[in-house]
Amino acid sequence: MAEIRVLDKHTAELIAAGEVVERPASVAKELLENAIDAGATQITLSATRGGIQQLQIVDNGSGIEAEYIDKAFIRHATSKIATADDLGHIHTLGFRGEALASIASVAKVEVLTKTEADEYACCYRIEGGEPQGMEPGARPVGTTITVNDLFYNTPARMKFLKKDASEGTFVAETVLHAALSHPEISFRFLRDGKQQYVTPGDGDLRSAVYAVLGREFARDLLPVDGGSELYHVTGLVTPPRACRASRGAQHFFVNGRYVKNRTMMAALENAYKGTMMQGKFPGAVLMLELPPDMVDVNVHPAKTEIRFARESDVFDAVYRAVRAALATPGSGECRFEMGHTAPKVGQTEMKPAEPPKPAAKPAVTMPQKGGFTTLSSVEYRALNGLTANTCTCRSLASAGAAMRNSISNGWPSGVSQGSGGSSVNAASCNFSTAVLLAWGIASPLPTQTPPSSSRARTSAAKTAVSVRTLAPSSSATSCCTAPCRESARWRSATQSGRR
């Protein structure tokens, strides 16, 4: 039969320490909470080798009185609560009274503290749960706690720690959560002697987010402020266009305490439904304030898991507050409305693209005074008000016949040679030129002196009247039949003459 034994004090402390102190980040969390509860406005955390070799926290809080320093390292000794009834309305981050005792049992701890009433500071050391004595020290009002050689007396725990870089990242996340939950406190984080960030401590959440999460994340955040009488939700959320591929940018806080809660996470993501792509998750820094008796924080020794008295009310409060933030103008939310329902206030209505307008018809240009303008047949008729019933085609056909005879003779009609120059019959030449210009098959050239030889005259005529190929338009061939055929034969003859 198995024998039941009572464990010694040291073994019991090591077992209890395993519930609270899992890694250096757990130590940082407990010490940061103590500094915040002490009323500090400036907190500096320094980690060496991921916090395994050394983890130091300096604050300007109220300090610990010299007569109570040794009692602070006794298990279940605390100044946060006095009776069992106090567990129903906890207003502080720490209350269990076992953090310092658990840390001191697996590390070498040194405490340097001073209060307003003390003349000098007190330095207290404890290693592996064994006190090493107290001596006077010097420092301003506040407390400095240095934890050296974490898990030096428990090699099994040391074996399961990750690399220094990974443990340092966990410590950085712990400081990040503390900085976001209390923007009124200035946090400074040093990693292996290098400063990572400093929060301004001005009470503005956006400033703290900018300092610890970066400019890209804090640039487009939307403010959240809503809830009900019992539940007040504030914070910042990302617009739908800036959602992330993971939930790593979601930070939830209840009464100033960082928590991991599925109810708040589900409410946040349901508020974004229909506004973001599949596989994307919103980023948020949400603060929920509610009466202490409506939440139970004494669920896990790490105090990161909580239980709400009314889960549905918390869900509704977070959902409505985030939906109201997304509905504000400029949030980037875009929903498609089906049917003829009016869009909701603050939402951007998607309208179908307007069909392209037909190209405007080119305006008919009037010929400038003292010059010529080449017109098509349609433009010429529109300019002069001609219709299909007029004898335009017949006039053009007879003019074409006259021009055909003139070209075959070597020079347009109306031009006669002389020793001193040439004279032009204005009536016939101008009419022929006007006909060619009207049909768009001639270009005017300045008057030239006709050459003397017959071959040169033919070449000059072809140059003076530049005939270009032009396909007859549908309007020109549909007005009448015989004159249009005549005009077509005339154009063919002029082109043959050009060749």
Describe the protein's architecture and organization.
- By secondary structure, this protein is α+β, with helices and mostly antiparallel strands.
- 33% of the residues lie in helices and 19% in strands.
- It is built from 15 helices and 19 strands.
- The strands form five sheets. It has an eight-stranded mixed β-sheet with strand order 5-4-3-6-2-1-7-8, covered by helices on one side. Strands 9-10-13-11-12 form a five-stranded mixed β-sheet, with helices on both faces.
- A hairpin with a 4-residue loop joins strand 18 (415-417) and strand 19 (422-424).
- Helix 8 (262-271) runs parallel beside helix 9.
- 33% of the residues are buried.
- The model is unreliable at 334-343, 387-393, 411-432, 434-449 and 460-483 (pLDDT under 50).
